[in-house]
Amino acid sequence: MTSCMRPYCDLIAVRMLLLLLVLVLVRSDSAENRCLSSLISTCEDCLRRGPECAWCSQERFLDGAHVSQRCGSVSDLRVRGCEEAFIENPNVKVEVNATISSTQVSPREINIHLRPGGEATFVIEVQQLERYPVDLYYLVDVSASMQDNLDQLKTAGLALSHQMKEHSSDFRVGFGSFVDKPVSPYIDVHPSKLLNPCSDYEVHCRPAHGFIHVLPITQNMTEFTRVIQEQRISGNMDTPEGGFDAMLQATVCQKDIGWRPEAKHLLLVMTDQPSHLALDSKLAGIVVPHDGRCHLEDNIYSQTTTMEHPTIAQLAEKLLENSVYSIFAVDQVQYQWYEDLLDLIPGSYVGRLFPKASNLKDLVVHAYKKLLSDVELQIGLEDAQAPRFWVNVTAFCPNGSTVSGSTKCSSVQPKQTVFFKVTVGMSCCPAEGGDQDVLMSVRPVGFNESVTVRIRQDCGCGCTETGRCHDDAGPSACPTETDVCRADRSEPVCSGRGACKCGTCVCDSSRLGNIYGKFCEMDDFSCPYVKGLVCGGHGQCVSSECVCLPGWTGETCDCPASTESCVSDDGLICSGWGKCVCGECVCDDSRRSGALCEKCPICDSSCQSHWSCVNCHLSNGLGSDAYQLCNRSCAASSVEYVDDITELVRGKYCLYPSSEKCQYRFLMDLASERPQLHISRHPVCVWSRRYFKTFLSAFLLTVTLGIGMLAAVRQLLRARNCSWRSNPEQQFERSPKDPSYVPTTNEKTITYRSDRLPNHPVEMHSHMPKMLLSDAWQ
């Protein structure tokens, strides 16, 4: 089954690849033809197509063509003959106002010009100071369950003040309290419980309240201690408290709270319960959304029973707008609930508060250091304008890391600087009121300095003001003759590709491309294409032939007429070793390569390649003038004269045959980038008679040695033969297993006698190897 499924899977893969290829081609074609549409009738319509589209307002441009042909890319319009002065193409501009002084955030004001589809990039610099003045506002939940923490605050607050002075140049504190909205079902509305919510426990409590501002920001710690000692607990019925309601009032009521503009603002929220959210107010019949404004009357939140709780987004916006850090010191049970808010509220910190607030001092100091070490950027844009813009931020942190799409750097130390690269793009123009500027705020969280970005939307054209964005069709009577629509009397009317109306050619439309020209003789599809552009983008297509623009040549106008690209550093064309053809070097010597024919690994390694250089120096007498006279012949090497060339060790020795009987020696050193030639001043001359004597001596010596060796070998053989004959038994005793044993041939005469024969002995000769005789003897 697996083998059967494999062809099916391969077919699916092929189809997916083909589909992907089609999508890529469609997207590419869409991008190229974005400026080409018969629906384009005005300059504004053209610019709205995208940043690559431009409009030509030149009179008599593309005679006979549809008005939509005035829209195209800048390069396309230039090729078609539109002069630069008549091309409407608003450029993206970034203008920085450096006159506004700042100590932490710069620049403070930026103006950018954007067109539909365009984008602009600028850099914002944020620097942390070594010591800041700090304003800390205690916002304490005074419900009955917080009694122990409230008692501990009376002593912990003073210790925290002394501790924070080590990290701040001027530390000040304030105080406020909250419980919940004093309406049912959050509290008991029985008359006796309104005045004393704790009457059932025989404890005198204060009435429930949404938020009471008790002590403005002050550096008088004696007054702060007195206020804390006077605080009493209160009570409510449900578990959540009205913390967000109180936080928003403590944030936006800057004058009442006493926030200093130059200080770091810390809002410390101490509670053991979660907070009510916006829709919770409907349980009490409160349906009016919070307006995000300050509503303190006699330091009491006056709209607590008429307005809903703020949303988390609304609270985060006000904290950022007023440069307030929020610190949640909460009970262990509620820690997770508040931790989930950190991603929703920029510049916030949550810490576990131990029983009786025993760790309050360390918690606040650690929170302050952590919040200060995190530098985060927030972008603000009007809700109505936000869908038409997009923003991308890249953070360059002091530790060397670069995070694209991130607006935050952590572990930033005092006096360190963080850089943010911000890119703003505009997708489209507004339906109405395109000339109105759009304001965008770029604010580091917790900083009292921000950047104002003013976006100017370039959705109009300059030619619109003069009313000359295109030619007007004249209402006068039209001539009937058609000769004015012919390039020549022998040519058809409008080149056979249009109709003559009112003495002007109106060119036909074609699915292949555009037809234009006074006589419809031009188009952008019947000429060769180079790199996707007709005539290489450097000419016009006239009567199916490319008419090149100045500076370009060739059948397809893709060859630059200038030889500047072929000039080497020494001012020579192709280093003097080639010709410049179509803007590229064609080397004369096949051994050479490189863009300027400057490379030839094997040219300088042979002796003969330097003969012309050596010959030039010899012809000029090896004098000082030869260095200048031989620059052409020795362009690739440096030359030096020496008296004794044998003293040079590194390099390759070469000979140059200067005459029939003399040669000059030179040494070729290729160790450096440029070959060095060391030419000997003294030639080496050799006579022919000396060659004959040398040959004769060598011949006679060889013959003598050969005869001597033959005589020695003969003498050795004779001595060995004599030694065997003098001691034959010793020879037979040698074992055939002896490695020095060599079989020999022996002769022996054997005589058989029955009677005494006359003097005619019978002789028999037996030839046998020594080894066989030895075996017989044994």
Automatic annotation (TrEMBL):
GO (cellular component) term, any one: cell surface
Signal sequence, renumbered to the chain: 1-31
Principal location: membrane
Domain of life: Eukaryota
Membrane topology value: Single-pass type I membrane protein
Cellular localisation: Cell membrane
Domain EGF-like residues, every copy: 546-557
Family: Belongs to the integrin beta chain family.
Protein name: Integrin subunit beta 8
Organism, as annotated: Cyprinus carpio carpio
